Amino acid sequence: MTDVADSAGISVETLRKIETGRIPTPAFFTVAALCEALGISLDAVADSTSDSTARHSEADAS
Fold it and tell me: If 0-12 CB within 10 Å is exposed, 13-18 middle and 19+ buried, where does residue 8 land?
């Protein structure tokens, strides 16, 4: 956790808050920095988020 936070330029406490949902909507630049630190593309994160949103919307419509 420390390595990821350091690589992303955020504090370990901020990363912990994001992971536990105490920061439910982190800033875009924080997400981008975490993606860079973890070797994940922003496109992959956006795709996984929109897939999840679509599934929730379909379930709500039932």
Answer: buried
Question: In the chain, what's the furthest Cα-to-Cα distance?
Answer: 44
What value does the mean pLDDT take over residues 7-19?
Answer: 97
Read off the pLDDT of each residue in 6-29 and give the average, rounded to a whole number.
96
Yes or no: say if 36 and 60 are a contact pair by the CB < 8 Å rule.
Answer: no
With vertex at residue 53, the alpha carbon angle to CA 18 and CA 5, rounded to the nearest 5 degrees, is 20
What is this structure's pTM?
Answer: 0.75
Q: What is the distance between the alpha carbons of residues 18 and 54, in angstroms, rounded to a whole number?
A: 22
Q: How far apart are CA 51 and CA 44, in angstroms?
A: 11
Q: How far apart are CA 13 and CA 30, in angstroms?
A: 13
pLDDT score at 49: 83
